[in-house]
Every structure is written in structure tokens, then in C-alpha cells.
Specification:
This protein is an all-alpha fold. The chain is 75% helix and 0% strand.
């Protein structure tokens, strides 16, 4: 095998020196020592004219192969273009149907969202929020009403106690010929800011009564805590 390989390499070198084309030498070498060696041995005695004829045939075969490859490539390229063009034309021919289907899908999505959020005219979701807001305000007002009632009762009691101290007989309804007189005392109270509790309101009332007693002690007895 070593001897055959050495002889085969020498034969290829000799063919190269004779002018055999590199394509043919590569084909003979690719055939291997056994098959390629027989071809190389047959060409060893070929003259210059034979070598030139072989090279010419090889060139023609190469040109034909390249033309075939180019034709196949062009055909595949053209087929791809035509395939894409056919797809585009097919989509264009169904454009109306595609738009109709897309509109149908969009409307279905819109209805699904409206059902999920309870959106109507008016929106039930926003109506529920408004109901809860109004109910919450009503609960808060109702819950704080007792503070206003307690404060008003405290104010009335304080005024009555102050008037009784100044005119002990004013609380009597004229019974027993007492001839009691009614004295009307008016208290103007201004509360600046918000009153958070009934205690705050009571303190504000007391301060107002103290100021009233200091300004007009002859009409209204000085109020003490």
C-alpha cells in the first residue's frame, strides 16, 4: 500500500507536469489509490494533444455544470418570488373578508370587556362607586349627629342655668301670684375651625359665655366653670 501510494503520487505529479488541468488531477486523486492509480497509469503514456483534449473536455463539462447550477438557482429564485407574489395576491383577494373577521374579533373583545367591568349607559361600576360614596357620607353624618345633639343640649342647659342664677324667679311660670318676669338672654357664639368632639364644642361655648359676662356683667351674671 505504501508502494502504491508513492507510485500514485509520482503519477499525479507527472500528469501535472504534462499540463493536465488541476480539476482532473483533483478528480483522479479523489478516486483513491486503486481506482485513481489505474486512471493515472493509463494517462501516463498520453501525449500533449491527448492532454489538451482532456483539458478542453473538462472545461466544457465545468461550464455546463455551472450553467446547470445557475439555471437551477434562477429557477428556485423565480419560484420563490412567484410563491411570495401568489401569497400576496391571495391575501389581497381576501382583504375584505380579513377586515370583516378582524372587526368581528375586535367587537367580541369590546363586549367581553364591557361585561367584565359592567359597563353600560350609565356604567354600573361607576354607579356602584357613587352609591358607596353617598352611603359612606350618610353613615358618617348619622354617626356624628349625636355629638351635635349633645352640644346643643349642653348649650341650652348652660344658658338656662346662667339665667336662673341671675333671675331666680324666671324659671317659674307665674304660679301662686309670684308675678315672675321672663328675661331673654341672647348668646352669639362663633366657632372658628372645625369642632371635632362635643367636648371641644362645650369648651367653645363656655369661653363665649365668659366673654359675654365680662362685657355685660350687669345683664348677665359672670359665668364660671
Amino acid at each position: 500500500q505504501v508502494a502504491k501510494a508513492t507510485q500514485f503520487a509520482a503519477q499525479l505529479q507527472a500528469l501535472k507536469q504534462k499540463g493536465l488541468s488541476s480539476d482532473l488531477i483533483a478528480q483522479i486523486a479523489a478516486a483513491g489509490v486503486d481506482q485513481g492509480g489505474a486512471t493515472a497509469a493509463a494517462l501516463a503514456s498520453a501525449n500533449k494533444s491527448t492532454i489538451n483534449q482532456l483539458n478542453s473536455l473538462q472545461g466544457s463539462m465545468k461550464t455546463a455544470a455551472n450553467s446547470t447550477g445557475a439555471a437551477v438557482a434562477d429557477s428556485m429564485y423565480g419560484a420563490g418570488i412567484k410563491s411570495a407574489q401568489g401569497l400576496i395576491k391571495g391575501l389581497q383577494s381576501q382583504e375584505k373578508a380579513i377586515e370583516k373577521q378582524m372587526m368581528k374579533i375586535a367587537k367580541s373583545m369590546q363586549k367581553a370587556i364591557e361585561r367584565a367591568l359592567g359597563i353600560h349607559s350609565p356604567s354600573t361600576v361607576m354607579a356602584e362607586i357613587g352609591d358607596n360614596t353617598s352611603l359612606g357620607m350618610a353613615v358618617g353624618i348619622d354617626r356624628s349627629t349625636k355629638h351635635a345633639v349633645i352640644a346643643a343640649q349642653g348649650l341650652a342647659m348652660s344658658v338656662r342655668q346662667g339665667a336662673t342664677l341671675r333671675n331666680p324667679g324666671m324659671g317659674l311660670a307665674g304660679g301662686g301670684g309670684g308675678g315672675g318676669s321672663v328675661v331673654n338672654n341672647y348668646l352669639h357664639l362663633e366657632v372658628h375651625g372645625s369642632v371635632r368632639t362635643d367636648r371641644d364644642l362645650r369648651d367653645a361655648i363656655e369661653q363665649g359665655m365668659l366673654r359675654l359676662g365680662m362685657r355685660n356683667s350687669g345683664t348677665y351674671v359672670p359665668y364660671k366653670r
